[in-house]
Protein backbone atom coordinates (compact mmCIF):
# COMPACT_ATOMS: atom_id res chain seq x y z
CA UNK A 1 0.00 0.00 0.00
CA UNK A 2 2.95 2.35 0.37
CA UNK A 3 3.16 2.48 -3.42
CA UNK A 4 0.02 4.67 -3.43
CA UNK A 5 2.07 7.88 -3.49
CA UNK A 6 2.23 11.00 -5.69
CA UNK A 7 3.66 8.90 -8.52
CA UNK A 8 0.41 6.93 -8.46
CA UNK A 9 -1.51 10.18 -8.69
CA UNK A 10 0.47 11.33 -11.73
CA UNK A 11 0.16 7.98 -13.52
CA UNK A 12 -3.54 7.84 -12.71
CA UNK A 13 -4.21 11.27 -14.20
CA UNK A 14 -2.01 11.47 -17.29
CA UNK A 15 0.02 8.27 -17.47
CA UNK A 16 -0.46 5.29 -19.73
CA UNK A 17 -2.36 3.49 -16.97
CA UNK A 18 -4.95 6.27 -16.68
CA UNK A 19 -7.63 4.07 -18.22
CA UNK A 20 -6.97 1.08 -15.99
CA UNK A 21 -9.60 2.13 -13.49
CA UNK A 22 -12.31 2.23 -16.13
CA UNK A 23 -11.47 -1.33 -17.18
CA UNK A 24 -11.23 -2.81 -13.68
CA UNK A 25 -13.83 -0.89 -11.69
CA UNK A 26 -17.42 -1.16 -12.97
CA UNK A 27 -19.31 2.11 -13.42
CA UNK A 28 -20.71 3.31 -10.10
CA UNK A 29 -23.70 5.15 -11.57
CA UNK A 30 -24.70 8.49 -10.11
CA UNK A 31 -22.06 8.30 -7.35
CA UNK A 32 -19.26 9.07 -9.76
CA UNK A 33 -20.97 12.11 -11.21
CA UNK A 34 -21.99 13.33 -7.79
CA UNK A 35 -18.27 13.40 -7.01
CA UNK A 36 -17.68 15.55 -10.08
CA UNK A 37 -20.54 17.86 -9.12
CA UNK A 38 -19.40 18.21 -5.49
CA UNK A 39 -15.82 18.88 -6.54
CA UNK A 40 -17.00 21.52 -9.03
CA UNK A 41 -19.10 23.27 -6.39
CA UNK A 42 -16.22 23.27 -3.90
CA UNK A 43 -13.82 24.64 -6.51
CA UNK A 44 -16.33 27.33 -7.51
CA UNK A 45 -16.62 28.45 -3.88
CA UNK A 46 -12.85 28.25 -3.46
CA UNK A 47 -12.36 30.73 -6.31
CA UNK A 48 -14.59 33.26 -4.57
CA UNK A 49 -12.91 32.64 -1.20
CA UNK A 50 -9.53 33.20 -2.83
CA UNK A 51 -10.82 36.36 -4.51
CA UNK A 52 -12.09 37.59 -1.12
CA UNK A 53 -8.71 36.98 0.52
CA UNK A 54 -6.79 38.78 -2.23
CA UNK A 55 -9.31 41.64 -2.51
CA UNK A 56 -9.20 42.39 1.21
CA UNK A 57 -5.41 42.48 1.03
CA UNK A 58 -5.62 45.12 -1.69
CA UNK A 59 -8.30 46.94 0.29
CA UNK A 60 -6.10 47.13 3.39
CA UNK A 61 -3.22 48.49 1.32
CA UNK A 62 -5.48 51.08 -0.32
CA UNK A 63 -6.91 52.25 3.00
CA UNK A 64 -3.45 52.37 4.55
CA UNK A 65 -1.99 54.34 1.64
CA UNK A 66 -4.99 56.68 1.41
CA UNK A 67 -4.89 57.70 5.06
CA UNK A 68 -1.19 57.38 5.82
CA UNK A 69 -0.19 60.41 3.70
CA UNK A 70 -3.06 62.70 4.68
CA UNK A 71 -3.60 64.65 7.89
CA UNK A 72 -6.20 67.22 8.87
CA UNK A 73 -5.80 70.35 10.94
CA UNK A 74 -8.95 71.45 12.77
CA UNK A 75 -9.14 75.07 13.92
CA UNK A 76 -11.75 75.93 16.56
CA UNK A 77 -11.69 79.62 17.53
CA UNK A 78 -14.08 82.56 17.95
CA UNK A 79 -15.19 84.33 14.77
CA UNK A 80 -12.90 87.31 15.38
CA UNK A 81 -9.83 85.03 15.70
CA UNK A 82 -10.53 82.30 13.18
CA UNK A 83 -8.88 84.05 10.24
CA UNK A 84 -5.74 84.88 12.21
CA UNK A 85 -5.44 81.31 13.52
CA UNK A 86 -5.96 79.95 10.01
CA UNK A 87 -3.25 82.18 8.59
CA UNK A 88 -0.85 81.14 11.36
CA UNK A 89 -1.54 77.44 10.69
CA UNK A 90 -1.03 77.80 6.95
CA UNK A 91 2.24 79.66 7.50
CA UNK A 92 3.45 76.93 9.85
CA UNK A 93 2.46 74.18 7.44
CA UNK A 94 4.26 75.75 4.49
CA UNK A 95 7.55 75.66 6.39
CA UNK A 96 7.11 72.19 7.90
CA UNK A 97 9.35 69.44 6.44
CA UNK A 98 7.38 66.66 4.74
CA UNK A 99 4.31 68.77 3.94
CA UNK A 100 3.61 68.56 0.20
CA UNK A 101 0.36 70.51 -0.17
CA UNK A 102 -2.06 72.47 1.99
CA UNK A 103 -5.70 73.18 1.17
CA UNK A 104 -8.42 74.75 3.29
CA UNK A 105 -11.82 73.12 2.83
CA UNK A 106 -14.60 75.41 1.62
CA UNK A 107 -17.88 75.82 3.47
CA UNK A 108 -19.61 73.70 0.81
CA UNK A 109 -17.17 70.83 1.38
CA UNK A 110 -17.61 71.07 5.14
CA UNK A 111 -21.39 71.04 4.70
CA UNK A 112 -21.07 67.91 2.56
CA UNK A 113 -19.16 66.22 5.39
CA UNK A 114 -21.97 67.05 7.82
CA UNK A 115 -24.82 65.83 5.58
CA UNK A 116 -24.79 62.20 6.89
CA UNK A 117 -25.38 63.51 10.44
CA UNK A 118 -27.49 66.66 10.01
CA UNK A 119 -29.12 66.23 6.60
CA UNK A 120 -28.76 68.22 3.37
CA UNK A 121 -30.11 71.50 4.79
CA UNK A 122 -27.57 71.99 7.55
CA UNK A 123 -26.96 75.74 8.23
CA UNK A 124 -23.18 75.76 8.27
CA UNK A 125 -22.97 79.51 8.75
CA UNK A 126 -25.14 79.38 11.88
CA UNK A 127 -23.17 76.57 13.53
CA UNK A 128 -19.79 76.82 15.25
CA UNK A 129 -18.19 74.59 12.62
CA UNK A 130 -14.38 74.51 12.85
CA UNK A 131 -12.16 75.41 9.93
CA UNK A 132 -10.60 72.34 8.31
CA UNK A 133 -7.30 72.23 6.44
CA UNK A 134 -6.32 69.17 4.43
CA UNK A 135 -2.60 68.41 4.38
CA UNK A 136 -0.85 65.91 2.08
CA UNK A 137 2.43 64.68 3.49
CA UNK A 138 5.51 62.79 2.36
CA UNK A 139 7.57 60.01 3.89
CA UNK A 140 9.70 62.41 5.96
CA UNK A 141 6.72 64.00 7.70
CA UNK A 142 6.66 63.84 11.52
CA UNK A 143 3.21 64.35 13.01
CA UNK A 144 4.39 64.81 16.59
CA UNK A 145 6.79 67.60 15.62
CA UNK A 146 4.02 69.46 13.80
CA UNK A 147 1.64 68.93 16.71
CA UNK A 148 4.12 70.54 19.11
CA UNK A 149 4.72 73.45 16.74
CA UNK A 150 1.02 74.13 16.32
CA UNK A 151 0.57 74.09 20.09
CA UNK A 152 3.01 76.99 20.31
CA UNK A 153 2.07 79.02 17.22
CA UNK A 154 -1.67 78.30 16.88
CA UNK A 155 -3.17 76.99 20.14
CA UNK A 156 -6.65 76.74 18.60
CA UNK A 157 -5.43 74.20 16.01
CA UNK A 158 -5.62 70.44 16.53
CA UNK A 159 -3.75 67.97 14.30
CA UNK A 160 -5.55 64.74 13.36
CA UNK A 161 -3.31 62.14 11.67
CA UNK A 162 -6.24 59.69 11.25
CA UNK A 163 -4.59 57.03 13.39
CA UNK A 164 -7.81 56.20 15.25
CA UNK A 165 -9.59 55.80 11.90
CA UNK A 166 -6.85 53.98 10.02
CA UNK A 167 -6.15 51.26 12.59
CA UNK A 168 -9.74 49.85 12.79
CA UNK A 169 -10.13 49.88 9.00
CA UNK A 170 -6.87 48.04 8.39
CA UNK A 171 -7.70 45.60 11.20
CA UNK A 172 -11.11 44.91 9.69
CA UNK A 173 -9.56 44.25 6.27
CA UNK A 174 -7.00 41.91 7.84
CA UNK A 175 -9.77 39.95 9.56
CA UNK A 176 -11.69 39.67 6.30
CA UNK A 177 -8.56 38.38 4.63
CA UNK A 178 -8.09 35.79 7.38
CA UNK A 179 -11.73 34.80 6.92
CA UNK A 180 -11.09 34.23 3.23
CA UNK A 181 -8.13 31.92 3.90
CA UNK A 182 -10.11 30.11 6.61
CA UNK A 183 -12.93 29.62 4.11
CA UNK A 184 -10.46 28.04 1.70
CA UNK A 185 -9.34 25.58 4.35
CA UNK A 186 -12.93 24.69 5.25
CA UNK A 187 -13.83 24.22 1.58
CA UNK A 188 -10.82 21.94 1.14
CA UNK A 189 -11.83 19.92 4.20
CA UNK A 190 -15.41 19.61 2.98
CA UNK A 191 -14.21 18.52 -0.44
CA UNK A 192 -11.97 15.88 1.10
CA UNK A 193 -14.90 14.59 3.17
CA UNK A 194 -17.17 14.36 0.11
CA UNK A 195 -14.57 12.50 -1.96
CA UNK A 196 -13.81 10.17 0.95
CA UNK A 197 -17.51 9.33 1.31
CA UNK A 198 -17.78 8.75 -2.45
CA UNK A 199 -14.80 6.39 -2.27
CA UNK A 200 -16.37 4.45 0.58
CA UNK A 201 -19.65 4.18 -1.30
CA UNK A 202 -17.89 3.02 -4.47
CA UNK A 203 -15.85 0.42 -2.61
CA UNK A 204 -18.86 -0.83 -0.65
CA UNK A 205 -20.98 -1.06 -3.81
CA UNK A 206 -18.27 -3.10 -5.50
CA UNK A 207 -17.56 -5.44 -2.60
CA UNK A 208 -18.46 -8.50 -4.67
CA UNK A 209 -16.19 -7.35 -7.48
CA UNK A 210 -13.33 -6.93 -5.01
CA UNK A 211 -13.83 -10.46 -3.71
CA UNK A 212 -13.86 -11.90 -7.23
CA UNK A 213 -10.71 -9.99 -8.17
CA UNK A 214 -9.00 -11.38 -5.09
CA UNK A 215 -10.03 -14.92 -6.07
CA UNK A 216 -8.40 -14.53 -9.48
CA UNK A 217 -5.16 -13.29 -7.92
CA UNK A 218 -5.48 -9.50 -7.92
CA UNK A 219 -3.57 -7.82 -5.13
CA UNK A 220 -5.10 -5.20 -2.87
CA UNK A 221 -2.58 -2.74 -4.30
CA UNK A 222 -3.99 -3.16 -7.81
CA UNK A 223 -7.58 -2.87 -6.57
CA UNK A 224 -6.85 0.23 -4.48
CA UNK A 225 -4.97 1.92 -7.32
CA UNK A 226 -7.95 1.39 -9.62
CA UNK A 227 -10.39 3.09 -7.27
CA UNK A 228 -7.92 5.85 -6.39
CA UNK A 229 -7.32 6.61 -10.06
CA UNK A 230 -11.00 6.75 -10.94
CA UNK A 231 -12.10 9.03 -8.11
CA UNK A 232 -8.99 11.22 -8.33
CA UNK A 233 -9.66 11.81 -12.01
CA UNK A 234 -13.28 12.67 -11.23
CA UNK A 235 -12.18 15.09 -8.51
CA UNK A 236 -9.68 16.71 -10.86
CA UNK A 237 -12.33 17.05 -13.56
CA UNK A 238 -14.83 18.59 -11.15
CA UNK A 239 -12.34 21.09 -9.72
CA UNK A 240 -11.27 22.11 -13.22
CA UNK A 241 -14.89 22.76 -14.22
CA UNK A 242 -15.68 24.63 -11.01
CA UNK A 243 -12.53 26.73 -11.25
CA UNK A 244 -13.30 27.68 -14.84
CA UNK A 245 -16.86 28.70 -13.97
CA UNK A 246 -15.64 30.63 -10.92
CA UNK A 247 -13.07 32.57 -12.93
CA UNK A 248 -15.67 33.43 -15.57
CA UNK A 249 -18.05 34.65 -12.85
CA UNK A 250 -15.32 36.78 -11.29
CA UNK A 251 -14.46 38.26 -14.70
CA UNK A 252 -18.12 39.24 -15.22
CA UNK A 253 -18.28 41.24 -11.97
CA UNK A 254 -18.40 45.06 -12.36
CA UNK A 255 -15.05 46.79 -12.58
CA UNK A 256 -14.11 48.48 -9.31
CA UNK A 257 -12.67 51.56 -11.05
CA UNK A 258 -15.93 52.30 -12.85
CA UNK A 259 -18.48 51.13 -10.28
CA UNK A 260 -16.61 51.80 -7.03
CA UNK A 261 -17.19 50.20 -3.67
CA UNK A 262 -15.80 47.18 -1.90
CA UNK A 263 -17.95 44.42 -3.38
CA UNK A 264 -17.11 45.46 -6.93
CA UNK A 265 -13.43 45.18 -5.97
CA UNK A 266 -13.89 41.44 -5.38
CA UNK A 267 -11.73 39.92 -8.06
CA UNK A 268 -8.24 39.32 -9.39
CA UNK A 269 -5.84 41.71 -11.03
CA UNK A 270 -2.66 41.19 -13.02
CA UNK A 271 -0.73 38.12 -12.01
CA UNK A 272 -3.43 37.38 -9.43
CA UNK A 273 -5.37 35.55 -12.15
CA UNK A 274 -2.78 32.77 -11.93
CA UNK A 275 -3.71 31.92 -8.32
CA UNK A 276 -7.01 30.14 -9.19
CA UNK A 277 -5.10 27.87 -11.57
CA UNK A 278 -3.63 26.18 -8.50
CA UNK A 279 -7.06 24.97 -7.38
CA UNK A 280 -7.43 22.04 -9.88
CA UNK A 281 -4.09 20.39 -9.01
CA UNK A 282 -4.72 20.98 -5.31
CA UNK A 283 -8.21 19.52 -5.71
CA UNK A 284 -6.75 16.45 -7.40
CA UNK A 285 -4.21 16.11 -4.59
CA UNK A 286 -6.93 16.39 -1.93
CA UNK A 287 -9.02 13.82 -3.78
CA UNK A 288 -6.04 11.49 -4.03
CA UNK A 289 -5.23 11.70 -0.33
CA UNK A 290 -8.86 11.29 0.73
CA UNK A 291 -9.49 8.39 -1.67
CA UNK A 292 -6.28 6.65 -0.69
CA UNK A 293 -7.19 6.78 2.99
CA UNK A 294 -10.71 5.52 2.29
CA UNK A 295 -9.45 2.73 0.03
CA UNK A 296 -6.94 1.46 2.57
CA UNK A 297 -9.59 1.48 5.29
CA UNK A 298 -12.30 -0.19 3.24
CA UNK A 299 -10.07 -2.92 1.78
CA UNK A 300 -9.17 -4.01 5.28
CA UNK A 301 -12.88 -4.39 6.02
CA UNK A 302 -13.97 -6.08 2.78
CA UNK A 303 -12.98 -9.75 3.05
How would you describe what is shown here?
By secondary structure, this protein is of the alpha+beta class. The protein has 2 domains: 6-64 and 167-302, no CATH class; 68-161, Alpha-Beta Plaits. 66% of the residues lie in helices and 8% in strands. The protein contains 11 helices and 4 strands. It has helices at residues 6-14, 20-24, 30-68, 82-94, 107-118, 143-153, 163-205, 207-215, 220-251, 256-259, 279-301, and strands at residues 70-75, 99-104, 131-137, 157-160. The chain has a 4-stranded antiparallel sheet with strand order 2-3-1-4. Helix 1 crosses helix 9. The radius of gyration is 31 Å and the shape is rod-shaped. The two termini are 17 Å apart.
* Low-pLDDT segments: 258-264
Count the E strands.
4
**Biggest sheet record:** 4 strands, antiparallel
Kindly name the structural category: alpha+beta
Percentage of residues assigned to helices: 55-70%
CA-atom Rg in angstroms: 31 Å
Order of strands in the sheet with most strands: 2-3-1-4
The overall average pLDDT, rounded, is 76
What is the number of helical segments per DSSP (H or I, 4+ residues)? 11
Distance between the termini: 17 Å
Q: Strand fraction band? A: 5-15%
Give the topology string: H per helix, E per strand.
Answer: HHHEHEHEHEHHHHH
Name the overall outline: rod-shaped
Number of domains: 2
How is the topology of this model organized?
Blueprint: H1 6-14, H2 20-24, H3 30-68, E1 70-75, H4 82-94, E2 99-104, H5 107-118, E3 131-137, H6 143-153, E4 157-160, H7 163-205, H8 207-215, H9 220-251, H10 256-259, H11 279-301
Antiparallel strand pairs: 1-3, 1-4, 2-3
